[in-house]
Specification:
- The two termini are about 25 Å apart.
- It contains one helix and five strands.
- By secondary structure, it is mainly β.
- A hairpin with a 6-residue loop joins β2 and β3.
- The chain has a five-stranded mixed beta barrel.
Length: about 90
């Protein structure tokens, strides 16, 4: 699973029919320890996430399973909205 932050939306009038009705979000991956911003990608929103929310993302076959459609052309899905992340300090 990946921790990320929703930074925007994607609107596509023309797309694969299996993507019709799905909410597409632009997500920036975050390093859990440093909170450093990493790469951005598009993920299907399964939980009603909004811009600026930290989210939990799954990729690959887990993303298609989250949509309950194994044939969907989806590689990333938002499956949770994060309330808090606690990392034990090193030492």
């Amino acid at each position: 699973m990946i921790i990320g932050k929703v930074i925007g939306n994607v609107w596509a009038t023309r797309k694969e029919s299996a993507l019709n009705g799905l909410k597409l979000m632009v997500v920036q991956r975050l390093d859990a320890q440093t909170n450093q911003s990493l790469e951005t990608f598009v993920a299907v929103d399964c939980v009603g996430a909004g811009t600026d929310e930290k989210v939990l993302i799954v990729t690959g076959s887990s993303a298609r399973k989250a949509l309950d459609n194994p044939l969907s052309p989806v590689d990333a899905a938002i499956v949770g909205i994060i309330d808090e992340v606690k990392i034990r300090p090193e030492g």
